[in-house]
Protein backbone atom coordinates (compact mmCIF):
# COMPACT_ATOMS: atom_id res chain seq x y z
CA UNK A 1 0.00 0.00 0.00
CA UNK A 2 1.21 3.45 -0.85
CA UNK A 3 2.31 5.63 2.04
CA UNK A 4 1.76 9.40 2.03
CA UNK A 5 4.71 11.37 0.72
CA UNK A 6 6.08 14.08 2.97
CA UNK A 7 6.64 17.11 0.77
CA UNK A 8 9.96 18.92 0.60
CA UNK A 9 8.40 21.83 2.46
CA UNK A 10 6.92 19.78 5.30
CA UNK A 11 10.09 17.75 5.74
CA UNK A 12 12.23 20.86 6.20
CA UNK A 13 9.71 23.18 7.85
CA UNK A 14 7.12 23.16 10.59
CA UNK A 15 7.17 23.82 14.28
CA UNK A 16 7.41 20.27 15.59
CA UNK A 17 10.20 19.90 18.14
CA UNK A 18 12.40 16.98 17.12
CA UNK A 19 15.22 15.51 19.18
CA UNK A 20 18.12 16.15 16.82
CA UNK A 21 21.73 15.38 17.67
CA UNK A 22 23.65 18.69 17.75
CA UNK A 23 26.07 19.30 14.90
CA UNK A 24 29.39 17.66 15.60
CA UNK A 25 28.05 15.52 18.44
CA UNK A 26 28.89 11.84 18.49
CA UNK A 27 26.39 9.45 16.97
CA UNK A 28 25.42 6.21 18.64
CA UNK A 29 28.40 3.89 18.35
CA UNK A 30 27.15 1.48 15.69
CA UNK A 31 24.25 0.50 13.44
CA UNK A 32 23.50 -2.29 15.90
CA UNK A 33 23.20 0.16 18.78
CA UNK A 34 20.88 2.37 16.78
CA UNK A 35 18.79 -0.60 15.64
CA UNK A 36 18.31 -1.54 19.29
CA UNK A 37 17.43 2.03 20.24
CA UNK A 38 14.88 2.45 17.45
CA UNK A 39 13.36 -0.93 18.28
CA UNK A 40 13.14 -0.25 22.00
CA UNK A 41 11.24 2.96 21.30
CA UNK A 42 8.97 1.15 18.82
CA UNK A 43 8.00 -1.53 21.31
CA UNK A 44 7.33 0.98 24.06
CA UNK A 45 5.16 3.22 21.88
CA UNK A 46 3.32 0.80 19.59
CA UNK A 47 3.05 -2.66 21.19
CA UNK A 48 -0.54 -3.29 22.31
CA UNK A 49 0.54 -5.80 24.97
CA UNK A 50 -2.78 -7.61 25.13
CA UNK A 51 -1.47 -11.07 24.27
CA UNK A 52 -2.09 -10.77 20.52
CA UNK A 53 1.45 -9.75 19.50
CA UNK A 54 -0.04 -6.88 17.49
CA UNK A 55 0.87 -3.20 17.27
CA UNK A 56 -0.86 0.16 17.11
CA UNK A 57 -0.31 2.22 13.98
CA UNK A 58 0.14 5.72 15.45
CA UNK A 59 1.68 7.43 18.46
CA UNK A 60 0.20 9.07 20.41
CA UNK A 61 -3.16 7.39 20.02
CA UNK A 62 -6.33 9.39 19.51
CA UNK A 63 -10.02 8.59 20.05
CA UNK A 64 -11.32 6.73 17.03
CA UNK A 65 -8.01 5.05 16.17
CA UNK A 66 -8.22 1.37 15.31
CA UNK A 67 -6.88 -0.83 18.11
CA UNK A 68 -4.56 -2.68 15.75
CA UNK A 69 -2.37 -1.57 12.88
CA UNK A 70 -3.24 -2.31 9.29
CA UNK A 71 -1.30 -5.12 7.64
CA UNK A 72 1.32 -3.14 5.69
CA UNK A 73 2.76 -1.38 8.77
CA UNK A 74 2.49 -4.56 10.80
CA UNK A 75 4.39 -6.53 8.17
CA UNK A 76 7.23 -4.03 8.34
CA UNK A 77 7.40 -4.36 12.13
CA UNK A 78 7.47 -8.15 11.59
CA UNK A 79 10.33 -7.78 9.10
CA UNK A 80 12.15 -5.46 11.50
CA UNK A 81 12.21 -8.25 14.08
CA UNK A 82 13.39 -10.73 11.46
CA UNK A 83 16.24 -8.39 10.52
CA UNK A 84 17.14 -7.94 14.19
CA UNK A 85 17.15 -11.71 14.74
CA UNK A 86 19.59 -12.08 11.85
CA UNK A 87 22.20 -9.80 13.42
CA UNK A 88 25.35 -11.73 14.32
CA UNK A 89 25.70 -14.01 17.30
CA UNK A 90 24.09 -13.22 20.66
CA UNK A 91 22.77 -9.85 19.51
CA UNK A 92 20.48 -11.58 17.05
CA UNK A 93 19.65 -14.63 19.16
CA UNK A 94 18.04 -12.48 21.84
CA UNK A 95 15.25 -11.66 19.36
CA UNK A 96 14.25 -15.27 18.64
CA UNK A 97 11.28 -15.29 21.08
CA UNK A 98 10.00 -11.92 19.82
CA UNK A 99 10.32 -13.08 16.21
CA UNK A 100 8.30 -16.21 16.94
CA UNK A 101 5.61 -14.08 18.58
CA UNK A 102 5.33 -11.63 15.69
CA UNK A 103 5.28 -14.45 13.13
CA UNK A 104 2.30 -15.94 14.95
CA UNK A 105 0.62 -12.53 15.06
CA UNK A 106 1.08 -12.17 11.30
CA UNK A 107 -1.49 -14.93 10.89
CA UNK A 108 -4.14 -12.72 12.50
CA UNK A 109 -4.44 -11.03 9.08
CA UNK A 110 -4.76 -14.34 7.20
CA UNK A 111 -8.06 -15.18 5.54
CA UNK A 112 -8.77 -18.64 4.15
CA UNK A 113 -10.37 -17.08 1.10
CA UNK A 114 -10.50 -13.85 -0.90
CA UNK A 115 -12.36 -12.53 -3.94
CA UNK A 116 -10.30 -14.84 -6.16
CA UNK A 117 -11.02 -17.79 -3.89
CA UNK A 118 -7.37 -18.01 -2.76
CA UNK A 119 -6.17 -17.41 0.80
CA UNK A 120 -4.16 -14.34 1.70
CA UNK A 121 -3.49 -11.57 4.21
CA UNK A 122 -6.19 -8.92 4.46
CA UNK A 123 -5.55 -5.25 5.18
CA UNK A 124 -6.93 -5.52 8.73
CA UNK A 125 -7.02 -8.26 11.34
CA UNK A 126 -9.61 -10.93 10.70
CA UNK A 127 -12.39 -12.06 13.10
CA UNK A 128 -12.68 -12.28 16.01
CA UNK A 129 -10.30 -9.32 16.48
CA UNK A 130 -11.41 -7.36 13.42
CA UNK A 131 -13.30 -7.45 10.16
CA UNK A 132 -10.49 -8.14 7.70
CA UNK A 133 -11.19 -5.47 5.04
CA UNK A 134 -9.70 -5.61 1.51
CA UNK A 135 -6.68 -7.52 0.20
CA UNK A 136 -3.63 -5.84 -1.34
CA UNK A 137 -1.26 -7.93 -3.41
CA UNK A 138 1.82 -5.89 -2.56
CA UNK A 139 1.12 -6.31 1.18
CA UNK A 140 1.14 -10.06 0.66
CA UNK A 141 4.30 -9.99 -1.44
CA UNK A 142 6.31 -8.35 1.36
CA UNK A 143 5.18 -11.09 3.73
CA UNK A 144 6.04 -13.75 1.15
CA UNK A 145 9.53 -12.33 0.75
CA UNK A 146 9.91 -12.24 4.54
CA UNK A 147 8.90 -15.90 4.66
CA UNK A 148 11.62 -16.71 2.12
CA UNK A 149 14.15 -14.70 4.13
CA UNK A 150 13.14 -16.60 7.27
CA UNK A 151 13.50 -19.91 5.42
CA UNK A 152 16.98 -18.95 4.18
CA UNK A 153 17.89 -17.97 7.75
CA UNK A 154 16.40 -20.94 9.62
CA UNK A 155 15.93 -23.60 6.94
CA UNK A 156 12.42 -24.36 8.20
CA UNK A 157 9.71 -25.96 6.09
CA UNK A 158 6.72 -23.92 7.35
CA UNK A 159 8.06 -20.57 6.13
CA UNK A 160 8.70 -22.02 2.66
CA UNK A 161 5.16 -23.42 2.62
CA UNK A 162 3.82 -19.99 3.61
CA UNK A 163 5.74 -18.34 0.77
CA UNK A 164 4.34 -20.88 -1.70
CA UNK A 165 0.79 -20.18 -0.48
CA UNK A 166 1.27 -16.44 -0.93
CA UNK A 167 2.61 -16.95 -4.43
CA UNK A 168 -0.51 -18.94 -5.29
CA UNK A 169 -2.50 -15.86 -4.29
CA UNK A 170 -0.31 -13.63 -6.45
CA UNK A 171 -0.86 -15.85 -9.46
CA UNK A 172 -4.60 -15.41 -8.97
CA UNK A 173 -4.16 -11.63 -9.16
CA UNK A 174 -3.01 -11.56 -12.80
CA UNK A 175 -5.49 -9.36 -14.67
CA UNK A 176 -7.64 -11.12 -17.25
CA UNK A 177 -9.76 -8.03 -17.89
CA UNK A 178 -10.43 -7.68 -21.58
CA UNK A 179 -9.96 -4.47 -23.53
CA UNK A 180 -7.27 -3.02 -21.29
CA UNK A 181 -4.37 -1.07 -22.65
CA UNK A 182 -1.27 -3.08 -21.77
CA UNK A 183 -3.35 -6.15 -20.82
CA UNK A 184 -2.22 -8.36 -17.98
CA UNK A 185 -0.24 -7.46 -14.90
CA UNK A 186 -0.92 -8.27 -11.25
CA UNK A 187 -3.51 -5.83 -9.94
CA UNK A 188 -2.77 -3.73 -6.89
CA UNK A 189 -5.77 -4.71 -4.78
CA UNK A 190 -8.93 -6.79 -4.86
CA UNK A 191 -11.12 -3.71 -4.34
CA UNK A 192 -13.96 -3.79 -6.85
CA UNK A 193 -13.23 -0.34 -8.22
CA UNK A 194 -9.51 -0.96 -8.69
CA UNK A 195 -8.07 -1.11 -12.17
CA UNK A 196 -4.51 -0.17 -11.27
CA UNK A 197 -1.62 -2.47 -12.06
CA UNK A 198 1.51 -1.31 -10.29
CA UNK A 199 5.24 -1.73 -10.33
CA UNK A 200 4.86 -2.62 -6.65
CA UNK A 201 2.34 -5.38 -7.31
CA UNK A 202 4.40 -6.93 -10.13
CA UNK A 203 8.10 -6.58 -9.42
CA UNK A 204 7.94 -7.94 -5.84
CA UNK A 205 5.84 -10.77 -7.32
CA UNK A 206 8.68 -11.47 -9.74
CA UNK A 207 11.18 -11.33 -6.87
CA UNK A 208 9.17 -13.81 -4.82
CA UNK A 209 8.83 -16.13 -7.82
CA UNK A 210 12.57 -16.02 -8.41
CA UNK A 211 13.30 -16.75 -4.77
CA UNK A 212 10.98 -19.76 -4.90
CA UNK A 213 12.56 -20.94 -8.16
CA UNK A 214 16.06 -20.72 -6.68
CA UNK A 215 14.88 -22.74 -3.67
CA UNK A 216 12.83 -25.39 -5.48
CA UNK A 217 14.00 -25.30 -9.13
CA UNK A 218 10.36 -25.63 -10.14
CA UNK A 219 10.19 -24.07 -13.61
CA UNK A 220 6.72 -22.57 -13.10
CA UNK A 221 8.08 -20.08 -10.59
CA UNK A 222 10.68 -18.81 -13.06
CA UNK A 223 8.12 -18.62 -15.86
CA UNK A 224 5.73 -16.55 -13.75
CA UNK A 225 8.53 -14.33 -12.48
CA UNK A 226 9.56 -13.60 -16.08
CA UNK A 227 5.93 -12.88 -17.01
CA UNK A 228 5.60 -10.30 -14.22
CA UNK A 229 9.04 -8.84 -14.98
CA UNK A 230 8.49 -8.49 -18.72
CA UNK A 231 5.03 -6.97 -18.31
CA UNK A 232 6.36 -4.32 -15.91
CA UNK A 233 9.31 -3.51 -18.16
CA UNK A 234 7.08 -3.17 -21.22
CA UNK A 235 4.44 -1.09 -19.42
CA UNK A 236 6.04 0.98 -16.66
CA UNK A 237 9.80 1.22 -17.24
CA UNK A 238 11.11 4.47 -18.67
CA UNK A 239 13.98 4.59 -21.19
CA UNK A 240 16.39 5.78 -18.48
CA UNK A 241 15.72 2.60 -16.46
CA UNK A 242 13.46 4.13 -13.81
CA UNK A 243 9.93 2.85 -13.19
CA UNK A 244 6.64 4.74 -13.04
CA UNK A 245 4.21 3.86 -10.27
CA UNK A 246 1.21 2.32 -12.06
CA UNK A 247 -1.05 2.18 -15.07
CA UNK A 248 -4.75 2.91 -14.67
CA UNK A 249 -7.60 1.03 -16.32
CA UNK A 250 -7.87 3.73 -19.02
CA UNK A 251 -4.18 3.43 -19.88
CA UNK A 252 -3.05 6.57 -18.03
CA UNK A 253 0.40 6.17 -16.49
CA UNK A 254 0.98 7.58 -13.00
CA UNK A 255 4.61 8.50 -13.44
CA UNK A 256 5.71 9.34 -9.91
CA UNK A 257 9.10 7.84 -9.05
CA UNK A 258 9.31 6.08 -5.69
CA UNK A 259 12.43 4.51 -4.23
CA UNK A 260 10.99 1.04 -3.65
CA UNK A 261 9.84 0.85 -7.27
CA UNK A 262 13.47 1.24 -8.34
CA UNK A 263 15.06 -0.96 -5.69
CA UNK A 264 12.96 -4.07 -6.24
CA UNK A 265 13.71 -4.25 -10.02
CA UNK A 266 17.41 -4.06 -9.09
CA UNK A 267 16.92 -7.09 -6.85
CA UNK A 268 14.86 -8.91 -9.48
CA UNK A 269 17.66 -8.53 -12.02
CA UNK A 270 20.25 -9.75 -9.53
CA UNK A 271 18.14 -12.85 -8.87
CA UNK A 272 17.59 -13.39 -12.60
CA UNK A 273 21.35 -13.29 -13.03
CA UNK A 274 21.72 -15.85 -10.24
CA UNK A 275 19.03 -18.05 -11.78
CA UNK A 276 20.28 -17.92 -15.38
CA UNK A 277 23.90 -16.66 -15.17
CA UNK A 278 23.01 -14.33 -18.04
CA UNK A 279 25.24 -11.26 -17.60
CA UNK A 280 22.64 -9.01 -19.21
CA UNK A 281 20.55 -9.14 -16.05
CA UNK A 282 23.39 -8.01 -13.81
CA UNK A 283 24.14 -5.19 -16.25
CA UNK A 284 20.48 -4.13 -16.10
CA UNK A 285 20.58 -4.16 -12.30
CA UNK A 286 23.55 -1.81 -12.45
CA UNK A 287 21.80 0.43 -14.98
CA UNK A 288 18.66 0.81 -12.86
CA UNK A 289 20.75 1.44 -9.73
CA UNK A 290 22.78 4.12 -11.54
CA UNK A 291 19.60 5.81 -12.80
CA UNK A 292 18.21 5.80 -9.26
CA UNK A 293 21.42 7.38 -7.93
CA UNK A 294 21.07 10.23 -10.39
CA UNK A 295 17.39 10.75 -9.62
CA UNK A 296 17.40 10.50 -5.84
CA UNK A 297 20.75 12.21 -5.42
CA UNK A 298 19.23 15.50 -6.61
CA UNK A 299 17.40 18.12 -4.54
CA UNK A 300 17.02 16.07 -1.38
CA UNK A 301 14.73 13.61 -3.13
CA UNK A 302 15.93 10.57 -1.19
CA UNK A 303 15.11 12.02 2.21
CA UNK A 304 11.68 13.13 0.96
CA UNK A 305 10.70 9.51 0.29
CA UNK A 306 8.79 7.52 2.95
CA UNK A 307 11.20 5.57 5.19
CA UNK A 308 9.66 2.14 4.40
CA UNK A 309 10.15 2.78 0.69
CA UNK A 310 13.79 3.63 1.38
CA UNK A 311 14.31 0.51 3.50
CA UNK A 312 13.11 -1.67 0.62
CA UNK A 313 15.20 0.33 -1.84
CA UNK A 314 18.41 0.03 0.13
CA UNK A 315 17.97 -3.66 0.93
CA UNK A 316 17.75 -4.45 -2.76
CA UNK A 317 20.84 -2.34 -3.39
CA UNK A 318 22.65 -4.42 -0.76
CA UNK A 319 21.63 -7.51 -2.72
CA UNK A 320 23.39 -5.92 -5.71
CA UNK A 321 26.38 -4.97 -3.55
CA UNK A 322 26.68 -8.60 -2.49
CA UNK A 323 26.94 -9.58 -6.16
CA UNK A 324 29.29 -6.80 -7.30
CA UNK A 325 31.25 -5.94 -4.13
CA UNK A 326 30.66 -2.25 -4.91
CA UNK A 327 30.15 -0.40 -1.61
CA UNK A 328 28.81 2.94 -2.84
CA UNK A 329 25.25 2.05 -1.91
CA UNK A 330 26.32 0.84 1.51
CA UNK A 331 27.79 4.25 2.22
CA UNK A 332 24.68 6.01 0.88
CA UNK A 333 22.55 3.84 3.16
CA UNK A 334 24.73 4.74 6.14
CA UNK A 335 24.43 8.42 5.28
CA UNK A 336 20.64 8.20 5.14
CA UNK A 337 20.56 6.34 8.46
CA UNK A 338 22.75 9.02 10.03
CA UNK A 339 20.48 11.82 8.84
CA UNK A 340 17.36 10.10 10.14
CA UNK A 341 19.01 9.53 13.51
CA UNK A 342 20.10 13.16 13.75
CA UNK A 343 17.08 14.93 12.26
CA UNK A 344 13.99 12.76 12.52
CA UNK A 345 14.16 11.21 16.00
CA UNK A 346 11.60 12.71 18.38
CA UNK A 347 11.75 12.99 22.14
CA UNK A 348 10.54 9.41 22.68
CA UNK A 349 12.96 7.94 20.14
CA UNK A 350 10.57 7.44 17.19
CA UNK A 351 10.85 8.57 13.59
CA UNK A 352 8.66 11.62 13.15
CA UNK A 353 8.00 14.19 10.45
CA UNK A 354 6.58 17.68 11.05
CA UNK A 355 2.80 17.99 11.21
CA UNK A 356 2.30 14.22 11.54
CA UNK A 357 2.00 11.76 14.37
CA UNK A 358 4.74 9.16 14.63
CA UNK A 359 3.88 6.01 12.65
CA UNK A 360 4.79 2.40 13.33
CA UNK A 361 5.93 1.82 9.77
CA UNK A 362 8.51 4.63 9.77
CA UNK A 363 10.34 3.52 12.89
CA UNK A 364 10.14 -0.12 11.76
CA UNK A 365 11.89 0.93 8.54
CA UNK A 366 14.80 2.46 10.46
CA UNK A 367 15.09 -0.68 12.59
CA UNK A 368 15.43 -2.65 9.35
CA UNK A 369 18.01 -0.31 7.85
CA UNK A 370 20.24 -0.26 10.90
CA UNK A 371 19.86 -3.98 11.58
CA UNK A 372 20.94 -5.08 8.09
CA UNK A 373 23.88 -2.65 8.22
CA UNK A 374 24.94 -4.66 11.29
CA UNK A 375 24.73 -7.98 9.42
CA UNK A 376 27.68 -9.89 8.07
CA UNK A 377 28.02 -8.76 4.46
CA UNK A 378 27.71 -12.27 3.10
CA UNK A 379 24.20 -12.44 4.58
CA UNK A 380 23.01 -9.62 2.31
CA UNK A 381 22.42 -12.29 -0.32
CA UNK A 382 19.29 -13.29 1.66
CA UNK A 383 17.67 -9.87 1.24
CA UNK A 384 14.80 -9.12 -1.11
Description:
The chain has 384 residues and is mainly alpha-helical. The protein has one domain (37-382): Glycosyltransferase (Alpha/alpha barrel), CATH 1.50.10. Helices cover 54% and strands 4% of the residues. It has 14 helices and seven strands. Helix 6 (137-154) runs antiparallel to helix 7. The longest helix has 18 residues, at 137-154. It is globular. The protein starts with 7 loop residues before the first helix and ends in an 11-residue tail after the last helix. 47% of the residues are buried. This is Glycosyl hydrolase family 76. Residues 1-25 form the signal peptide. Keywords: Hydrolase, Signal.
Could you tell me the CATH topology label.
Glycosyltransferase
Main sheet strand line-up: 4-5-6
Helix content: 40-55%
Compressed to H and E, one letter per element, the order equals HHEHHHEEHHEHHEEHHHHEH
The first-level CATH class is given as: Mainly Alpha
Q: How many strands, what sense, and barrel or not for the largest sheet? A: 3 strands, antiparallel
Total DSSP helices: 14
Relative strand content? under 5%
Radius of gyration: 20 Å
What average pLDDT do the residues reach?
93
Number of domains: 1
